[in-house]
Each structure stands twice: as C-alpha cells, then as structure tokens.
Amino acid sequence: MGTADVKRGAAGGVSCEEKGSRYRLDGAVERGLRERLRLRLRSTRRRLARRQLVRPHSPTRLLSAIMKPEKKKWEPPLPTRVGKKKKRGPDPTQKLPAVFPTTRCKLKLLKMDRIKDHLLLEEEFVLNQERLKPTLTEDKNVEERTRVDDLRGSPMSVGTLEEIIDDDHALVSSSSGPEYYVSIMSFVDKDQLEPGCSVLLHHKAMAIVGVLADDTDPMVNMMKVDKAPTESYADIGASDARQSLGLEQQIQEIKEAVELPLTHPELYEEMGIKPPKGVILYGVPGTGKTLLAKAVANQTSATFLRIVGSELIQKYLGDGPKLVRELFKAAGEMAPSIVFIDEIDAVGTKRYDSNSGGEREIQRTMLELLNQLDGFDDRGDVKVIMATNKIESLDPALIRPGRIDRKIEFPLPDIKTKRYIFKIHTSRMNLADDVDLEEFVHAKDELSGADIKAVCTEAGLLALRERRMRVTMADLRAAREKTMFAKKDNGPEGLFPFTI
C-alpha cells in the first residue's frame, strides 16, 4: 500500500488516503485486509522473536521495528599515534599467545609415541636377526650334515682313491686289496677328491659317500711360529770397515746356507752348485744359538717351524717316527719353510745295542729323521737348522755332508765381543758415574753372552732392592760374583769345565 495511512471510519469501514485520493471499501474487502495484516504481523513477530529483538506479545514494538530502520551502533574512532610516545619493549599485539595442548593434541601425541615404540621394536628385531644369523646358519649346517649322514648309512668302509674316471665315477682300492669301479654321490665335495686321498665307501653299494679329512697331528700346527720374534741380526752382531763384533761370522754363514737359497735360488743355479740342505749350530750354553735362529725367523718371510728334540720322544710305539713324517710333510706343504730342531742330542745320539724298548724307539725316531733329511724324495725349499750343546755325542750319520752341510761353531766371546755385548745390555740402564765396564771386559772370567746378560739383570735387581734407580760399580761386582758362584760351585759337575 506504499505510504498509505490506514484509519478506522464511523460507519465501520476503512478509508485510505494515497496521493490525495479517497476510496471507499466495502465490509468484505475490509475483513480481507485485516486478515492479511494480522497474518503478516504474526509472521513478523515470530521472525523477530527468533532474533530476540522484541517480545512476542509486544505489537507496538513490532510495528516500530517494521516501519523504522535500525540505527547503527556507535563505534569509537580508530586510535592514532600522533602525539604519543613510543612504548619500549615488545609490542603486546605481536606477542605470541600461550598455546596449551588440547585433548585432541594429547591423543595425537600418544599415537605418535606408540608408532615410535613400534618402529624401535622393529629395528631391534632386525638387529637381533642379523646377530643371530650365524647361529641359524650353524643350525642349518648341522641339519644338513645329519641328513647326509642318514643318506650315507652305517657302517662304512675306508678306501683309497686311485683314479677319477669322470664326474660321477672313480676307481677305489679297498683295504683288502682289490679295486672297485664305484659311483660318486652327488653330495660329495668333488673339489676335495684327488688321487691318493682316503674316502668313505657305503658298505653295500660301494659308492663314495665322503672324504676323510687330513689326519695331520695337531702338534704340528702348534709348532708353527705365527708371530715373528723381535730379535734381529743387529742384536747379535755388527761389523764395520775395521772389525767384526759379536756373531757376525756366524750370521754370514747361516745367511749363505739358509736365507740366501730361499730368497735368491738363481745365484746357486748360475754357479752350478746345490745349496746346503741344513746347518747345525753347536757350542757351549749361552753363546746365542737359539737367539740366531730367532733372528733368522724374523728376517725371512718363510714359514718357521720350531720343535725341541724331546718332543719327538712319544709315549706309544711308532708315534715318534710318525710325528717326524708329519712335520716334514707340513713343511713341504708350507714351502718355503725352515725347520728348527733345538736340543737335537735328545734323539740324535750315537746308536748302540740296547735291550730297552724306549732306547730302541728313540733310535727308530732318529732313523726316520735321517730318512727325511736325505731320503729318496727331494724336500725342495725346506731348510733344517739344528742346535746342540754336545756335538760329539751325535751320531755321525746325522751330521754327515748331504744331510747337514755346514757346522757353525759358537765359541765364548772375546774381549771385543764382550765389550759389544755389555754395550747392548747396558744401553737402557741408568749407570752411575763410577761404573767402568772395562774391568769386566778384561776380567779372566769366561763369560758367555747369557752370563753377561745375567750380570746386568742381577745388578739392576740389587739396585732396586736398595730403592735406587742407578746401578753402581758395587752392584755390578756383586752381581758378577753371584753369577760366577752359581755357575762354578752349584752347577753340574763334569759338564763344560772352565779354566781359571
């Protein structure tokens, strides 16, 4: 109706004024307008009631809200910084708010912790699997060996492989004598099969079901020197343009007989001679025989096997000769090699008739040693060094040329050599100013290299007994008297007599 004013008339009708015109309405139209107005007011009242502008039972406020526009709320003007001082410190509007984890964040954090625990557990499991892998492999190997043993069957016989025909067949001779044409089982390691090796045969099918391992005595492996000694030729002798000190002559002889044939064999071929097969070192005790053998082991890259003569004497019959055979067999397999037999007089004494079973066993061991030194088979690059204190008691067949081609004597040291040995053993000692080693060098006592070392060691112990860090002349004199007393009076009588 626009901006029309609605008024109630005297006759009960409604007059409407719009743009200066007046219209007369009948009763039906009046009732329709009232009904429409009532419905519109009711809908507007409900709508405004939802918005909480007026109460549902207030029609006056409802009409004012419909007819009048809403007024805007007053808002303060924006503050300006004109004429204000700038505050020091951080701007509170830019300060980061304090954030606290909500329940949802806590649940997410717990979930991440669980995932991390699972990953750590998985990593530990993988590491344990890698660590326990060798054990699993060993268990698998044991299981496979058990299956192979079941396939082999029991009992089994031992034979010798004579010839390999093809990949699946071979000729084998049994212990009874005849040879058999047998098959080789598929699980046998064919790389280990070679003519002459011992094989396991099935007792019914006579097929090769295994290869016997090498039956070398474990004692032979213990004879091998794995770690090279620390002694060198410089600790034994030295030479210059004017004189030769220490065991320089003995060093030169053993180099020509043992070391040079292994390092430069072409020199002997050009000369048309065969290198010596072995040497023997003899002399009174303490002159450096074993020390020189250690220096040879240090200087050469060949395999060094060391054994004492008393180790060749075994308890049971035949074990001594067997040990000698296995010793030289191992030396041939490890060639170039050097076999050092110390105290050879334990098994190499002169032969004589005896009713004792032990003496006869020792003689059999020596006969096997003679056969290995100069037998039918060539030893190749295997050199032998022997050492003894009594060369006169050895059997002539053992030290004859062809077996032992060079005999190297180790005499007692002379004045120059004694001075050199004293210098070696006192080089690291704290000596007092009154020490004069020339007194001991020119003494009439027949001191060996081991005796000189014992004198120096004993003098150091006497100084430590008195809480001193320097060795005096009195300590050296007391040590010499103690060493010579133990050597002359308390030593075994009749062995190596010394002249005073």
Automatic annotation (TrEMBL):
One GO term of the cellular component aspect?
nucleus
Family matches, as Pfam families: AAA (PF00004), AAA_lid_3 (PF17862), Prot_ATP_ID_OB_C (PF16450)
Q: Which Gene3D superfamilies does this chain map to?
A: 1.10.8.60, Nucleic acid-binding proteins, P-loop containing nucleotide triphosphate hydrolases
**InterPro entries from the UniProt entry:** 26S_Proteasome_ATPase, AAA+_ATPase, AAA_lid_3, ATPase_AAA_core, ATPase_AAA_CS, NA-bd_OB-fold, P-loop_NTPase, Prot_ATP_ID_OB_2nd
Instruction: Extract the SMART domains matched here.
Output: AAA (SM00382)
Q: Which PROSITE patterns match?
A: AAA
**Where would you find this protein in the cell?**
Cytoplasm; Nucleus
Region of interest: Disordered: 71-98
Instruction: Provide this UniProt record's keywords sorted from A to Z.
Output: ATP-binding, Cytoplasm, Nucleotide-binding, Nucleus, Proteasome
* A GO MF term: ATP hydrolysis activity
Q: Give the domain of life.
A: Eukaryota
Q: Where is the AAA+ ATPase domain?
A: 275-414
Query: Which family does the similarity line name?
Result: Belongs to the AAA ATPase family.
The protein's name is 26S proteasome regulatory subunit 4 homolog
Species assigned in the record: Sporidiobolus salmonicolor (Yeast-like fungus)
